[in-house]
Amino acid sequence: MDFMRLNSNSWLANPVLYGNSEERVSDVIDNFSKDLPDNSFYKFTIQVTFVHPVLGGGNKNFIGAKTGDAYEWQIAIDYAHDNLFFRRKNGGTWHDFKRINAV
After folding, report:
1. How do residues 47-64 score in pLDDT, each as one tens digit?
2. Average pLDDT score over residue span 75-102
């Protein structure tokens, strides 16, 4: 991966990554777990430096779980706008994010 990581790569760290285009954001969030073993939990932050059509802009904190290469889920937390976003990978295909209003 060619993402700029600001934190260490230990499992307790929260890597901070940058997304300055829709393609880069998709690359970051779609491929973050590709080198993780099956049955892994992970977290990372992405700084979205433009207005993404679904996630919007600003910092998004992600929590995810990878069961295997074909099955996974992610939750994105947007503190600035009180939104949560959820998506899942089923059969190797990521589905669109669903926004859940937190308030």
Report:
1. 998 888 888 888 999 999
2. 90
Rounded Cα distance, 49 and 10, in Å: 25
Segments making up each domain of the chain, as ranges: 16-98
Burial classification of residue 62, based on how many CB atoms lie within 10 Å of its CB (0-12 exposed, 13-18 middle, 19 or more buried): buried
Closest CA to 68 of 90, 95, 100: 90
Q: Show the beta-strand stretches assigned E in the chain.
A: 16-19, 40-52, 56-68, 71-78, 83-90, 93-94, 98-101
Report yes or no on whether pTM surpasses 0.85.
no
Instruction: For residues 22 and 51, give the distance between their C-alpha atoms in angstroms, rounded to a whole number.
Output: 9
